[in-house]
Amino acid sequence: LDTPQIMNMADVAVGVGRVALEAMALEKPVIIAGEAGFMGVLTPRNFKEAHKHNFSGRGSDRQTSASTIAKSIRELLRNREYREELGVFGRQAVEKYFSIESMTENIIKVYKEVLSRRKNK
Protein backbone atom coordinates (compact mmCIF):
# COMPACT_ATOMS: atom_id res chain seq x y z
CA LEU A 1 0.00 0.00 0.00
CA ASP A 2 1.09 3.54 -0.60
CA THR A 3 0.51 6.59 1.58
CA PRO A 4 -2.72 7.81 -0.10
CA GLN A 5 -4.24 4.32 0.14
CA ILE A 6 -3.40 4.10 3.83
CA MET A 7 -4.70 7.62 4.54
CA ASN A 8 -7.91 6.91 2.66
CA MET A 9 -8.66 4.15 5.17
CA ALA A 10 -8.53 6.64 8.05
CA ASP A 11 -11.32 8.83 9.39
CA VAL A 12 -8.87 11.37 10.85
CA ALA A 13 -5.19 12.23 10.32
CA VAL A 14 -2.80 13.30 13.07
CA GLY A 15 0.46 14.92 12.08
CA VAL A 16 2.32 17.98 10.91
CA GLY A 17 3.76 19.42 7.72
CA ARG A 18 3.47 17.31 4.62
CA VAL A 19 1.39 14.67 6.43
CA ALA A 20 -1.20 17.36 7.18
CA LEU A 21 -1.20 18.59 3.59
CA GLU A 22 -1.54 15.09 2.15
CA ALA A 23 -4.45 14.36 4.48
CA MET A 24 -6.12 17.64 3.54
CA ALA A 25 -5.75 16.79 -0.15
CA LEU A 26 -7.56 13.51 0.57
CA GLU A 27 -10.38 15.37 2.38
CA LYS A 28 -9.40 14.03 5.80
CA PRO A 29 -9.81 16.20 8.88
CA VAL A 30 -6.42 16.94 10.43
CA ILE A 31 -5.20 17.24 13.99
CA ILE A 32 -2.00 19.30 14.08
CA ALA A 33 0.12 17.61 16.74
CA GLY A 34 3.89 17.51 16.77
CA GLU A 35 7.02 18.11 18.79
CA ALA A 36 6.77 21.87 18.23
CA GLY A 37 3.27 22.14 19.69
CA PHE A 38 -0.37 21.17 19.52
CA MET A 39 -2.82 23.21 17.44
CA GLY A 40 -5.57 20.62 17.62
CA VAL A 41 -8.19 20.16 14.93
CA LEU A 42 -7.41 22.22 11.84
CA THR A 43 -10.38 24.49 11.14
CA PRO A 44 -11.06 27.61 9.08
CA ARG A 45 -10.56 29.53 12.32
CA ASN A 46 -6.96 28.39 12.95
CA PHE A 47 -5.92 27.70 9.35
CA LYS A 48 -4.11 31.01 8.83
CA GLU A 49 -1.93 30.48 11.91
CA ALA A 50 -1.26 26.84 11.01
CA HIS A 51 -0.36 27.80 7.43
CA LYS A 52 1.96 30.55 8.69
CA HIS A 53 3.91 27.92 10.64
CA ASN A 54 3.80 25.26 7.89
CA PHE A 55 1.32 23.12 9.82
CA SER A 56 4.06 22.34 12.36
CA GLY A 57 2.32 23.16 15.63
CA ARG A 58 4.71 26.07 16.20
CA GLY A 59 2.95 29.18 17.39
CA SER A 60 0.77 27.20 19.77
CA ASP A 61 1.24 27.44 23.51
CA ARG A 62 -0.17 23.93 24.01
CA GLN A 63 2.03 20.84 24.17
CA THR A 64 1.19 17.63 22.37
CA SER A 65 0.19 14.75 24.63
CA ALA A 66 -1.66 11.49 24.25
CA SER A 67 -4.65 12.95 26.09
CA THR A 68 -4.91 16.07 23.89
CA ILE A 69 -4.71 13.94 20.75
CA ALA A 70 -7.27 11.45 22.10
CA LYS A 71 -9.68 14.25 23.03
CA SER A 72 -9.49 15.72 19.52
CA ILE A 73 -9.94 12.32 17.88
CA ARG A 74 -13.03 11.64 20.01
CA GLU A 75 -14.45 15.05 19.11
CA LEU A 76 -14.11 14.29 15.41
CA LEU A 77 -15.28 10.68 15.54
CA ARG A 78 -18.49 11.72 17.32
CA ASN A 79 -19.54 14.04 14.49
CA ARG A 80 -19.38 12.64 10.96
CA GLU A 81 -20.89 15.77 9.41
CA TYR A 82 -18.22 17.97 11.05
CA ARG A 83 -15.47 15.61 9.82
CA GLU A 84 -16.83 15.84 6.30
CA GLU A 85 -17.05 19.65 6.46
CA LEU A 86 -13.45 19.86 7.64
CA GLY A 87 -12.38 17.43 4.93
CA VAL A 88 -13.95 19.57 2.23
CA PHE A 89 -12.42 22.71 3.76
CA GLY A 90 -8.98 21.09 3.80
CA ARG A 91 -9.21 19.98 0.18
CA GLN A 92 -10.30 23.47 -0.91
CA ALA A 93 -7.44 25.03 1.05
CA VAL A 94 -4.88 22.73 -0.59
CA GLU A 95 -6.29 23.53 -4.03
CA LYS A 96 -6.24 27.27 -3.29
CA TYR A 97 -2.80 27.57 -1.71
CA PHE A 98 -0.80 24.55 -2.88
CA SER A 99 -1.93 23.68 -6.41
CA ILE A 100 0.61 23.88 -9.22
CA GLU A 101 -1.23 26.91 -10.58
CA SER A 102 -1.20 28.70 -7.23
CA MET A 103 2.44 27.91 -6.53
CA THR A 104 3.45 29.01 -10.04
CA GLU A 105 1.54 32.25 -9.61
CA ASN A 106 3.29 32.92 -6.29
CA ILE A 107 6.74 32.23 -7.75
CA ILE A 108 6.06 34.59 -10.66
CA LYS A 109 5.03 37.30 -8.17
CA VAL A 110 8.30 36.87 -6.28
CA TYR A 111 10.36 37.13 -9.47
CA LYS A 112 8.47 40.25 -10.56
CA GLU A 113 8.98 41.83 -7.15
CA VAL A 114 12.72 41.09 -7.18
CA LEU A 115 13.09 42.39 -10.74
CA SER A 116 11.20 45.60 -9.94
CA ARG A 117 13.51 46.22 -6.95
CA ARG A 118 16.57 45.78 -9.17
CA LYS A 119 15.20 48.30 -11.69
CA ASN A 120 14.61 50.85 -8.92
CA LYS A 121 18.24 50.73 -7.69
Globular, elongated, flat, extended or rod-shaped: what is the shape? globular
Cα(first) to Cα(last) distance is: 54 Å
Topology pattern, helix = H, strand = E: HEHEEHHHH
Largest sheet: 3 strands, mixed
Number of strands: 3
Stretches where pLDDT is under 50 for at least 5 consecutive residues are none
List the helices and strands and how they pair.
Elements: H1 3-8, E1 13-15, H2 17-25, E2 30-34, E3 37-41, H3 47-52, H4 66-77, H5 80-98, H6 100-119
Parallel strand pairs: 1-2
Antiparallel strand pairs: 2-3
Which labels suit this protein?
121 residues; mainly alpha; 3-stranded mixed beta sheet; globular
Structure description:
The chain is mainly alpha-helical and 121 residues long. The longest helix is centred in the last third of the chain and has 20 residues. The mean pLDDT is 94.
